[in-house]
Design goal:
The protein is of the alpha+beta class and 191 residues long. It is 33% helix and 13% strand.
């Protein structure tokens, strides 16, 4: 049996001369002896702002990717994040679980902290209705939905950070099955 070519490693060969572990290290770090991820790169608000284009109404329009709901989206510290949430946190500190970052400017691409405010899911829904969204039967626009895109994203974030579906369901007063389906993308696949 062929074994790993890494000095003193006796594991079975997997690919490119290495065992699975050393091959994965090689793949992620370009060096089979590097064990850890690179140190996370923390951003400052001005670095985030540098990735936006300011509009005449003061919106900081994100130049990078948008998610399927149209929110500015980035990979940050190893996770997919809505950039307006990151911007809010850089300006004001961590957001309590259960709260959404909402836009006064109704511009989902905008990450200007002075255009953002915190609200709960209910505020978010009222806000959407007030702004004339909340019509067509799709995702949060369907009359029966108990969730909305931002809440789903937020619940998935909490889930990836170790909250259980039961915790999350209790927190939002939702049936556990609704939460479980959303977390596991049985529903809300477009988010
Ligand atoms: Zn090895
Ligand atoms: Zn704005």
């Amino acid at each position: 049996m062929r074994v790993c070519s890494f000095p003193s490693c006796k594991r079975l060969h997997k690919a490119r001369g290495f065992c699975e572990m050393h091959y994965l290290r090689l793949k992620s770090h370009g060096d089979p002896s590097v064990r850890k991820r690179r140190a996370p790169v923390l951003l400052s608000l001005s670095e985030l702002m540098a990735r936006t284009t300011m509009s005449s109404d003061g919106c900081w329009n994100w130049n990078g990717a948008l998610n399927t709901s149209g929110y500015a989206w980035m990979s940050y510290l190893g996770r997919s994040r809505i950039v307006s949430r990151v911007a809010w946190e850089l300006e004001n500190g961590p957001i309590s679980v259960g709260l959404c970052v909402l836009h006064r400017c109704d511009n989902r691409k905008c990450i200007n902290p002075s255009h953002l405010f915190l609200g709960d899911n209910l505020t978010n829904q009222r806000d959407m209705i007030a702004k004339g969204r909340g019509r067509k039967a799709f995702g949060s626009r369907s009359g029966v939905a108990k969730l909305n895109e931002q809440l789903v994203v937020q619940m998935r974030e909490a889930y990836s950070l170790g909250s259980t579906p039961t915790d999350i369901a209790r927190q939002h007063g939702l049936p556990r099955s609704t939460v479980w389906h959303a977390l596991n993308k049985r529903t809300w696949r477009h988010v």
